[in-house]
Every structure is written in structure tokens, then in C-alpha cells.
Give the backbone structure.
Amino acid sequence: MKLIVGLGNPGKEYAKSKHNIGYMVLSSFAAAEHIPFTKSVKFHGEIAKLQDAILLKPRTFMNLSGLSVRAVAEYYGIKNSDILVISDDLDLPFLQIRMREQGSAGGHNGLKSIIEHLHNNDFKRLRIGIGRDDRQDVIDYVLDDFGKSQQKELNDFLIITSQILAVYLTSESFDNIMSRFNTKKPDQIQ
């Protein structure tokens, strides 16, 4: 069983924010696969079940995402190495992809919370670049919505991320998936 986690913040005011790209990716994938999400108090989030995977959107706010991830992982007996977390990354150019087998939180509070609750950093990551604007405070920037021109690119990009998740759910090795998609912008992926 695999667990795919899309990070974000609950609430309409955050729905289109840069920090919610993990939610957007999972929502797009679930819609393409016709898989409904259901709210779960027990798991502190919204979950969607596939035959051999669980999709999770923690509803705990970013800083407490690990609470939700741990609850699902423990209940279903999912190993940390079978968890993939999708998050935004300020240090990557807009929509550039970086996949890793494990690593640090890199300043991301959602990843930090997951590392704390799982007691290690042995889970996979799909980081998506949101760029950075040095003229704007970091918190304001990540909680701000994507611009109109970015939104068009993002819509096309969500089709690509759905393909990445579909491949991840096959038996293809994560090394091969990283080789195919890592550090590429959407127009470079085939």
C-alpha cells in the first residue's frame, strides 16, 4: 500500500495559493481518475482510496501535516518508504520538478512536521517550484494566489503531475521515475 500526500492549507481563502499546490495536484489526479475524496475526522484530512494506495490531503494546516500523515500510515500499516509527499518549493523555478527518495525539510513547515511525526525523513518527495519574489515577504508570497498567466501554465502542468502519479502507482522504480521527470520544466517532459 502506498500513501500519496498533497500538502496545503484548508479553507477557501487558501484554495488557490501557491502553498496549496500539493492539494491541487492530488485534486487534479483524483478528478482524472474519478476518485472521490471523503472527509475523515480520524485521519485529520480528506482521503481517497485506490486499490493499492491512499491519497491524503491533511486538513490540519501546514504546520501540523505530520499528525494526519502519521494517523493514516499507522492505521494502514504503510511504511515510510512507501509515502510520497507533494509540496511547493520556493527555491525551484516556477513549475520545475524535484523528486527525492528522502531529505531534509528544506525550510518547509509541512515537511518538517511530517519528519517530526514519522521520526525520520525516509519518505519520498515531489517538490514543485513556485519561484520566489525577493520583494515580497515569504509568508505573504506562498499564501498569495498564482497570477493569471501562471494559472494557465499551472492547469497544463497538473495534467503532467497526474501522469507522474499514475507512473508512481505502477511497479516502475522510483529511480526511473526520478530520471524521467526530475528537475524538468513542463515543456521538457515527454
Helices lie at 21-33, 65-76, 109-118, 138-143, 148-168, 174-181. The beta strands are 2-6, 38-40, 45-49, 53-58, 83-89, 97-100, 124-129.
